[in-house]
Amino acid sequence: MRGTIGGMTNAGASDARDRDVAGRARNARPRDGLGRPLPYGAEGVPRQPEGVLRTPEDTVAEARALLASGRPFHAHEVFEDAWKSGPREERALWRGLAQLAVGLTHAARGNAVGGARLLRRGAGAVEGWAAERGEDRLYGLDLPGLARWARELAGRVEDDSAPVDAETEAPRLGP
């Protein structure tokens, strides 16, 4: 039996995935501040809308605010929009920034192995993009500083697998 949840269809037991009106899989469950699914009907935090076109400056500003409020999962979604819709020559940078945010998400959830791996992968992507382009400060971002932050946090997460506080550990994007 199919019903709707928040404007999305819930296929029930035969197809456990929620679908949007076009039939694409979309999870309508509420989520906590770190993006973890909560039971249907629970109070969650507002989700970031997907597929939003923003200027690079707006992307950085929105991600900065989300990281500062301890919501790296949501910042990851903002960076992902830029990665998927931005200019081809910047996609590797935005993907690397999304990996940094989701690495922090995993570290805050207590997934030390995944968090450290994604933090290092994102650091490598950001550094690689900066080296290839000869640009280490784009849109107010300190790319070498972000890579250092990520590697340092990855080491600490591996040494102590306890969840980190996403708000206090978040990088500061720009001034």
Description:
This protein is mainly alpha-helical. Helices cover 51% and strands 7% of the residues. The chain has helices at 56-68, 72-85, 91-109, 112-133, 143-159, 166-169, and strands spanning 3-5, 8-10, 18-19, 137-138, 141-142. The strands form 2 sheets. Strands 1-2-3 form a 3-stranded antiparallel sheet, with no helix packed on it. Strands 4-5 form a two-stranded antiparallel sheet. The longest helix has 22 residues, at 112-133. The radius of gyration is 17 Å and the shape is globular. InterPro entries: DUF309, TTHA0068_sf.
Uncertain regions: pLDDT < 50 for 5+ in a row? 1-14
Q: What is the H/E string?
A: EEEHHHHEEHH
Q: Give a short account of the largest sheet.
A: 3 strands, antiparallel
Morphology:
globular
- By helix and strand content, what is the structural category? mainly alpha
Radius of gyration: 17 Å
Number of helices: 6
> What is the helix fraction of residues, given as a range?
40-55%
Please give the alpha-carbon distance between the first and last residues: 52 Å
- What is the residue-mean pLDDT, rounded to a whole number? 87
Strand fraction: 5-15%
Strand order within the widest beta sheet: 1-2-3
DSSP strand tally? 5
Region (Disordered): 1-51, 156-175
Biased composition (Basic and acidic residues): 15-34
Protein name: DUF309 domain-containing protein
